[in-house]
Write a structure and sequence with these properties.
Distance between the termini: 33 Å
Number of domains: 2
CATH topology of the largest domain: Rossmann fold
Order of helices and strands: EHEHEHHHHHEEHEEHHHHHHEEEHEE
CATH class of the largest domain: Alpha Beta
Number of strands: 12
CATH superfamily of the largest domain: Vaccinia Virus protein VP39
Bound molecules: S-adenosylmethionine
CATH architecture of the largest domain: 3-Layer(aba) Sandwich
Length: 463
């Protein structure tokens, strides 16, 4: 390759922001419903609202907004609130559960949930007191043995390097599941499971940094004990309050929109969605940053009985958009399945970097980039089929720095869309983030370092 500088030669007009609200999920942390579960690299509710108002200002009763990578349902819930039918695909069973619970909240019976929360407090009070007393007496193991035994067993095939929960916390967690099993209504059970999933890491010996690792590994102390039922109840009460507000908000609607989330890969979408049926797509696929959604939710998936064995995780990894570097680094040289010379050159360039490092060097990362964009190509092929004529897709992605090379992901999305005859309406930089180290803006050979800004961009495509 002549020079990596070619990457900066893209001619696409780049607009800054253009009225879009910050897409970062941080804005969701305090918002009703969106605050239930934090999910990495989501976009904010405000961003979604803006995009709907801009690109589907006058929806009809059969309009549909799709999020192919729904995460915890930001697009789905904002579309629903606007009375627009919505469909989501989400491969991660925990995120899909959260999206499902949010949509079901439109019709869940508040009284039943209230009663279930009160019942949980009554059930756990004496059990938790007994466990805490035995610890304060210093005979935790003995007392725990003699205390009433939970019926639920820890997930059989879940392994962690250090005990995920300390023994008293684990007892409290198992009793929590005993209680959930007694709940007669499945949608209330799902709310409890989601609430537990939302707080379980905070009661454990692990933490997000932002990947999941042991607390001692991050210089934090172990969690010897935790007020599990109080923590779960606080989350449940937050959920109940938000459900009340949500149901009030939608009570004016003559008819509720249709809303579905498929716990399935979007690459299977053509089995579920009719051709030319989607008005608007608002989505954020996994970034080219190797954030390992599957590994980072392993405890949720096992403890909530959403997977039962390691093989299930491998299946999820295989179907994940982009694959993970850990799963492709040892493959033979993987190349693009389509023709885009400017991208192929970047892949070749990365492949030749740091060869002495073996799969940890350029070869492994080149495979990662190639599989990511091969999936992008398949993704665009599906978009082309399911979007209505003149339908719009707003796709939020970030640039990446891989082996010191900046990859402007949004530019390649636009070019891959063009290969499917999908037009780019615009590329908008919607958020500037931290600054990373890159050698891209300088002569690569001198390897002098320059700071490159990381940002999120909305690629707006039109069929
Ligand atoms: C950047 S996140 C989306 C976050 C979302 N915008 C939100 O607000 O929660 C990308 C999501 O894509 C999901 N995903 C990855 N591969 C997928 C596939 N093949 N089909 C459907 N979802 C997939 C991941 O599990 C992850 O939740």
């Amino acid at each position: 390759m002549s020079s990596i500088k070619q990457l900066n030669l893209f001619k696409t007009e780049r607009n800054t922001n253009d009225g879009f609200k910050d897409p970062g999920a941080l804005g969701n942390k305090k918002l009703p419903m969106h605050r239930w579960v934090t999910w990495i690299a989501g976009f904010s509710a405000a961003f979604t609202k803006d995009a709907i108002e801009k690109y589907l200002p006058t929806p009809k009763s059969d309009s549909i907004i799709l999020d192919p990578f729904a995460g915890v349902g930001t697009t789905l819930i904002e579309s629903f609130k606007k009375g627009i039918n919505t469909i989501g695909f989400e491969i991660n069973p925990f995120a899909a559960l959260v999206s499902q619970v949010k949509l079901e909240s439109a019709v869940v019976e508040q009284r039943m949930l209230e009663k279930a929360i009160a019942g949980y407090t009554c059930f756990m009070g004496p059990i938790e007191r007994l466990i805490d007393q035995s610890i304060s007496k210093g005979d935790s193991n003995e007392a725990l043995q003699s205390a009433q035994r939970p019926k639920t067993q820890p997930p059989r095939n879940f392994r962690s390097r250090i005990p995920f929960f300390s023994p008293p916390v684990e007892q409290k967690v198992l009793f929590t599941f005993d209680y959930i099993d007694t709940l007669p209504d499945e949608s209330i059970q799902r709310i409890f499971k989601m609430a537990f999933g939302a707080v379980m890491v905070s009661c454990s010996n692990y933490s997000y940094e932002p990947s999941l690792g042991s607390r001692p590994g991050a210089g934090r102390s172990l969690i010897e004990n935790a007020a599990v039922s109080q923590i779960v109840t606080r989350k449940l009460k937050e959920i109940l309050a938000d459900i009340k507000e949500f149901q009030d908000e939608i009570s004016m609607m003559e008819k509720l929109p249709k809303a579905t989330v498929y716990r399935q890969s979007f690459f299977e979408a053509l089995k579920r969605i009719d051709s030319s049926s989607i008005d608007l797509i608002i989505t954020s696929p996994p970034y080219l940053n190797n954030y390992h959604y599957v590994r980072n939710t392993r405890p949720h998936l096992f403890w909530l009985d959403l997977v039962s064995q390691p093989k299930d995780l491998q299946e999820l990894e295989k179907e994940n958009y982009g694959k993970f570097w850990q799963t492709v680094r040892e493959l033979e040289a993987t190349n693009l399945h389509f023709d885009l010379p400017v991208l192929q050159e970047v892949i070749e360039y990365v492949r030749n970097l740091n060869q002495a490092k073996g799969v940890y060097g350029g070869q492994g990362w080149a495979n990662y980039i190639a599989t990511y964009f091969n999936d992008t190509y398949s993704f665009m092929a599906i978009l082309k089929k399911i979007l209505k004529s003149k339908g719009i897709a707003v796709i939020v992605v970030g640039n990446s720095i891989i082996q010191g090379i900046e990859i402007k992901v949004e530019e390649f999305f636009s070019r891959i869309a063009a290969l499917h005859e999908i037009e780019t309406e615009g590329i908008y930089i919607v958020r500037q983030k931290r600054v990373g180290s890159s050698i891209v803006n300088t002569g690569v050979r001198e390897k002098s370092k320059q700071k490159t800004e990381l940002y999120d961009a909305a690629v707006v495509l039109k069929r």
